[in-house]
């Protein structure tokens, strides 16, 4: 604790509020990222099913998900733009010195952002005005644009973790930049695929969780069944894949960022036969309080044998490694992520067993309770993943090249604390508006489904580019909305 106090005393006053402001905006934005990256894919999967099988219910779901996707994207514009400005405003030292090296990654993310906005607009517009398959194929690039955006942001983050693609001159400034090396760093592959699959898995469980809650409330129609089954199947298939990708990413950290690995596993001294601690707290003298100790497991996980040597935190000076508090935070975040991932594998196996035995979803209420919780749990793991990545890299903002304290703005601490308060108030308003809009849409859709809207007001959704058009919904399996088979005009309703 004393060593932590000494380190904090030697840092600029504005460092703590700058960190808190960045942490809050990043933690808020990351909650929307799974839907920006993965919801387009899940929506198009449902859209394809609707066209391929002439399934009116699937098309209805796809239309409604596209509406939620658009609203989410609008909110993401706000949180993402704020985050982009903060890189330059809060960390001018990093952007001023290193921007020429890894700035292209942010450029790729920006182009992907604008492309995705255009494609979402076309997708929404096309529900009424394009032929069904033309509409679908024009939307196929949408998930690719989302993946390109993820490519840009992960390229920037992986460079901060394993910087390369430059040479330092006599003044310590980067020269002779190799853009290809700066983008494709040793950590890029493990980080990117781990991130993309995490987004798909999270979006799948969250969307399925909405319909799981509906099932628990007695809505057992095909609409809720299909709305649950498609995204949950995507998530269940990817869950064991994600577990293997996570293991690969952790092993890449072991080789490329040994001090970060030591922080996430709270390894104090370099040694072999290192035990694994599930949770527990690292003290400043190297002792560990609490937690479940599993002998030799950390060495086995790192190198597949107990004799694997694991680098400890004390292998570098105290100023070049995370503090005991930071290491404990990264360790807990990592363990929470692994624990939730393991439980999700059990849930996926439960689902697979039911399909193998009965060709049907499990019918017990406990399964749907777990499925409803899974979405929230996945959002927690997304937060924990970023905490592990960012806190475990401390005190470096560019690993082994620039400290966070060297990059921070010179703006006064009081101004930054005031800005944090303003941002919190704005974000609470924005997210409240987002939830209000989504809940209003849900109410309108429910009224449309129940057929009660005509008695009190005009049919809902007649003035929007998505969703069913009140009383014009098809009533037979052979009919399809939006210009599908059986619609003589060929246009979208």
TrEMBL record:
Biased composition (Gly residues): 481-493
Keywords for the protein's UniProt record, in alphabetical order: Cell membrane, Electron transport, Heme, Iron, Membrane, Metal-binding, Transmembrane, Transmembrane helix, Transport
Annotated transmembrane regions: 21-46, 67-89, 101-124, 136-159, 192-214, 226-245, 329-354, 366-388, 416-439
Signal sequence residues: none
InterPro entries (alphabetical): Cyt-d_ubiquinol_oxidase_su_1 (IPR002585)
Major location category of this protein: membrane
Pfam families assigned to the protein according to its UniProt record, in alphabetical order: Cyt_bd_oxida_I
Chain intervals for the UniProt region annotation (Disordered): 451-493
Keyword Metal-binding: yes
Bilayer topology: Multi-pass membrane protein
Subcellular location: Cell membrane
PANTHER family reported in the protein's UniProt record: CYTOCHROME BD MENAQUINOL OXIDASE SUBUNIT I-RELATED, CYTOCHROME D UBIQUINOL OXIDASE
Family classification: Belongs to the cytochrome ubiquinol oxidase subunit 1 family.
Name of this protein: Cytochrome ubiquinol oxidase subunit I
UniProt source species: Streptomyces pseudovenezuelae
Taxonomic path: Bacteria, Bacillati, Actinomycetota, Actinomycetes, Kitasatosporales
């Amino acid at each position: 604790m004393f060593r932590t106090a000494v380190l904090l005393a030697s840092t600029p006053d504005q460092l703590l509020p700058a960190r808190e402001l960045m942490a809050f905006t990043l933690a808020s934005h990351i909650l929307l990222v799974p839907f920006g990256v993965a919801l387009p894919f899940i929506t198009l999967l449902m859209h394809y099913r609707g066209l391929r099988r002439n399934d009116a219910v699937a098309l209805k779901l796809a239309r409604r998900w596209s509406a939620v996707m658009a609203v989410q994207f609008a909110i993401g514009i706000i949180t993402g733009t704020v985050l982009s400005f903060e890189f330059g405003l809060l960390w001018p030292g990093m952007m001023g010195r290193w921007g020429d090296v890894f700035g292209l990654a942010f450029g790729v993310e920006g182009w992907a952002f604008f492309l995705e906005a255009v494609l979402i607009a076309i997708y929404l517009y096309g529900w009424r005005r394009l032929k069904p398959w033309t509409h679908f194929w024009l939307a196929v690039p949408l998930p690719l644009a989302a993946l390109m955006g993820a490519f840009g942001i992960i390229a920037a983050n992986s460079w901060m973790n394993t910087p390369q693609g430059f040479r330092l001159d006599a003044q310590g400034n980067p020269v002779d930049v190799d853009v290809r090396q700066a983008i494709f760093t040793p950590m890029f592959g493990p980080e990117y695929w781990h991130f993309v699959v995490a987004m798909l898995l999270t979006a799948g469980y969250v969307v399925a969780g909405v319909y799981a809650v509906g099932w628990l409330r007695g809505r057992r129609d095909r609409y809720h069944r299909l709305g649950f089954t498609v995204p949950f199947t995507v998530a269940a298939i990817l869950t064991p894949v994600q577990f293997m990708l996570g293991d690969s990413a952790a092993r890449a950290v072991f080789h490329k960022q040994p001090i970060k690995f030591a922080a996430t596993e709270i390894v104090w001294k370099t040694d072999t036969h290192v035990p694994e601690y599930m949770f527990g707290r690292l003290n400043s003298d190297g002792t560990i309080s609490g937690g479940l100790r599993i002998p030799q497991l950390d060495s086995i996980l790192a190198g597949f044998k107990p004799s694997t040597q694991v680098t400890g935190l004390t292998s570098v000076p105290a100023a070049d490694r995370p503090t005991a508090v930071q290491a404990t935070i990264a360790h807990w975040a990592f363990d929470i992520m692994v624990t939730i991932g393991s439980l999700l594998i059990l849930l996926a196996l439960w689902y697979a067993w039911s399909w193998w035995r009965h060709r049907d979803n499990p019918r017990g209420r406990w399964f749907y309770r777990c499925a409803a919780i899974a979405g929230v749990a996945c959002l927690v793991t997304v937060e924990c993943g970023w905490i592990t990545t960012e806190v475990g890299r401390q005190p470096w903002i560019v690993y082994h090249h620039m400290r966070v304290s060297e990059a921070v703005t010179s703006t006064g601490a009081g101004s930054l604390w005031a800005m944090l308060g303003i941002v919190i108030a704005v974000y609470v308003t924005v997210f409240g508006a987002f939830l209000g809009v989504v809940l209003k849409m849900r109410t309108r859709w429910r009224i449309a489904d129940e057929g009660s809207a005509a008695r009190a007001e005009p049919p809902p959704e007649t003035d929007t580019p998505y969703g069913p058009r009140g009383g014009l919904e098809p009533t037979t399996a052979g009919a399809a909305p939006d210009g599908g088979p059986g619609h003589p005009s060929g246009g979208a309703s």
